[in-house]
């Protein structure tokens, strides 16, 4: 009998794992169970189809079902795994006979947090996740005049921008004082709020959700700021790890509710790995467990967990979390954490910030780039960064996350060389300007 | 008497130095001599005005002459310094009485290498440098039907693209087998050559310049490939350090012809600094002296030299040379060196390369990004990189130059996290793909 790996979940983590197993052990039997009709599409693209930036859903599919058959990966669609027995090394599939495995990879993803208010069973509440559902919702969007987005989470920010681009009167309701308050600083988000206003978005911050109102279908959202009439609600609450199967099987769950894994993505149960949004991963600097990372993280974790599940050897590391997303007319992003999170965690920092530009000041299309660097007092090692701009945010976020990981200091960044070519880069790189400004401030304050 | 710094040259290096002196010693007397009518404009923008990407020359000016007066920087325009006496600490200006200095900064820039062929005194030979001249040449370009660019240097590449964009029949003559052959690899330049062909450019590689032909004005270029009729020749030969003043004063000149400086940008003469294209700077890995770096390097060297000339303390480091430029419809770039240079220097390397993309594969505007990484065999430390793409090349080049400087390995880059957000970044970062491919190749070859 060949080695058999069972994978529960068909998202980026699960399919990354399937590929990892096959790379490590080409003759392994790999079985994937998914509750959905499809695998191998990009859920991250859904908001952009709704917003009209991407013309259709079809192009979100990455591979045909045949491609998996050909790769020797046996995907079972619309199939639910209801239990795991880690001693017997079996999974129970749709209540039928247990299926045995040599190794198991859990890639069960996330659920949106229950808003926990009355009216949650009304029609017209859209939880963005599954592409087939999204295709149906997209038709419905053509009839929608007014929409409410619940919470300025990463998805909430994307959906707010997309619905506004689509010409729908969009209201954003969030209990925090500014959008993405758990990861982004208010100065980074201020231009985003401004550009939302230009797009006609109504923001309701410091506002608590009290309920969904309607007869059968939602007709209004009740909030601490009053009732907001609407035809649609996008529920973009916090992503919670879906660790139910693991928990029921006695596998160790962490403080965030995510499955605890080691650097091999192995859980507390022998032969059982977990990858993606159902896990928690330590932050590289603080060790604080994080969950709800990106599809890129899920895929990389999948490759690691799958490689190990296939008998190979691969490690995943603590994360430094480069992030970025369009928001209004801006792109925001960063690495590790910003001032708000540092303050909440009690982590002291010094700051270097600059308002730079993306091309030569005279080159058409030049855009502002604001860079804010947080460094450890004394050592001046970079511990976080936040940015708002339009060009080059993703590449700078990747770089700055790597700079945090390798302990680069403000001195190192202040002496960084940069490309100067009018169409693609300014004389002064904004990261270098921010580092120099931080050092200048310290000098003035007599602290360096 | 206040401290007096004299600066010879009004480009990025000279003005960076003027700012550096004033920052270190606000009451210093700072005198700048320039042979030209202007300072504080961006010569790097000139090709893009010729090409029509930038609508006019006026926007290349960075500051008014008044701004320097207000900053306490005394700029003497159209003024030539003809000699230096490093013992008497004086400079001779336009043959008049010697002018004393406490410290001197040489920022005398570069000259284009003399093509060394007959006909060099004909009209219609354009050496791109001075903005006033460029404004005159731009009017002439309206009458030009056919132009020849001599040498596929960085400027030659830019001017070839610009003239083609302007609708002029453009011929590029270069003695090497591919463009930018001294810094870029042929696989990186192949798409550029292809896109030039689409623009109607005629390339003549492996072709030697034999002379300029004409009666008064140039009417053809004579080459080893035959005569090329033309109305204009852009002479974009190698940039040579203009170190004549320094050499005549007995200051040490290096193997490239550039002024030798230490990390404070100090020359061999006490109190005399040199910055920018007139100097040579060691490459961070090899120690090989380099000259002809970018305006960004010149400006940073100026700040360093100026700070030290003003009595402050600042170091400049060996360079890892991030570079990038538009070329045809592509953007090319890299850091440190590529395969061609490594081979020429006898430096062994292993390679990791990948053809990636700049956004999610389904997101409109997605562009290819080819990344090639060179690493030291054994340690797998990054020693160079080359890229061709359209988006994010400058930011990746900055990052990769920093990665070379800090000794990051292919393993480090293969485990780099990256932003995944459909509009701004793909699931797999091309740098990470290239590093992983390199490691896979080594594994297959049994070398890691």
TrEMBL record, chains A, B:
Its cofactor is FAD. GO terms for molecular function: oxidoreductase activity. Its EC number is 1.6.3.3. Signal peptide: none annotated. Residues 339-415 form the Pyridine nucleotide-disulphide oxidoreductase dimerisation domain. It comes from the Bacteria. InterPro entries: FAD-bd_OxRdtase, FAD/NAD-bd_sf, FAD/NAD-binding_dom, FAD/NAD-linked_Rdtase_dimer_sf, Pyr_nucl-diS_OxRdtase_dimer. Residues 4-281 form the FAD/NAD(P)-binding domain. Belongs to the class-III pyridine nucleotide-disulfide oxidoreductase family. It comes from Pseudonocardia parietis. This is NADH oxidase (H2O2-forming). The keyword Flavoprotein applies. Keywords: FAD, Flavoprotein, Oxidoreductase, Redox-active center. Pfam families: Pyr_redox_2 (PF07992), Pyr_redox_dim (PF02852).
């Amino acid at each position: 009998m060949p080695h058999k790996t069972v994978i529960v979940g068909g998202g980026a983590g699960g399919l990354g794992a399937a590929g990892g197993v096959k790379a490590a052990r080409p003759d392994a039997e790999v079985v994937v169970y998914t509750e959905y009709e499809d695998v191998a599409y990009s859920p991250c693209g859904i908001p952009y189809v709704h917003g009209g930036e991407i013309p259709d859903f079809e192009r979100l599919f990455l591979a045909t079902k045949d491609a998996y058959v050909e790769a020797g990966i046996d995907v079972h669609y619309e199939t639910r795994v209801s239990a795991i027995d880690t001693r017997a090394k079996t999974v129970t599939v749709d209540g039928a006979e247990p299926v045995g495995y040599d190794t198991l990879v859990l890639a069960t993803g996330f659920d949106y947090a229950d808003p926990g208010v009355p009216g949650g069973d009304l029609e017209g509440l859209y939880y963005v996740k599954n592409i087939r559902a999204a295709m149906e919702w997209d038709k419905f969007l053509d009839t929608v005049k007014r929409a409410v987005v619940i919470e300025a989470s990463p998805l909430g920010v994307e959906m707010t921008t997309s619905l506004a681009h689509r010409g729908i009167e969009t209201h954003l309701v969030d209990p925090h004082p500014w959008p993405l308050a758990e990861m982004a600083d208010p100065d980074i988000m201020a231009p985003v709020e401004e550009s939302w206003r230009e797009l006609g978005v109504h923001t309701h911050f410091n506002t608590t959700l009290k309920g969904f109102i309607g007869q059968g279908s939602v007709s209004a959202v009740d909030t601490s700021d009053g009732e907001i009439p609407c035809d649609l609600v996008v529920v973009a609450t916090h992503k919670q790890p879906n660790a139910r199967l693991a928990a029921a099987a006695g596998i160790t769950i962490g403080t965030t509710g995510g499955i605890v894994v080691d650097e091999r993505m192995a859980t507390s149960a022998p032969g059982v790995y977990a990858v993606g949004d159902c896990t928690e991963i330590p932050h590289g600097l603080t060790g604080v467990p994080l969950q709800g990372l990106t599809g890129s993280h899920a895929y990389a974790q999948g490759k690691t967990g799958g490689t190990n599940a296939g008998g190979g050897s691969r490690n995943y590391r603590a994360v430094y979390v480069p992030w970025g997303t369009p928001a209004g007319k801006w792109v925001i992003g960063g690495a590790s954490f910003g001032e708000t999170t540092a303050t909440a965690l009690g982590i002291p920092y010094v700051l270097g910030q600059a308002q730079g530009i993306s091309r030569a000041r005279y080159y058409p299309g030049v855009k502002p780039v604001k860079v804010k660097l947080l460094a450890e007092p004394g050592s001046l090692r970079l511990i976080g960064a936040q940015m708002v701009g339009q060009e080059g945010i993703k590449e700078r976020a990747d770089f700055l996350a790597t700079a945090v990981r390798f302990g680069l200091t403000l001195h190192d960044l202040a002496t960084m060389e940069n490309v100067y070519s009018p169409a693609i880069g300014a004389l002064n790189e904004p990261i270098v300007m921010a580092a120099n400004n931080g050092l200048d401030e310290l000098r003035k304050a007599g602290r360096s």
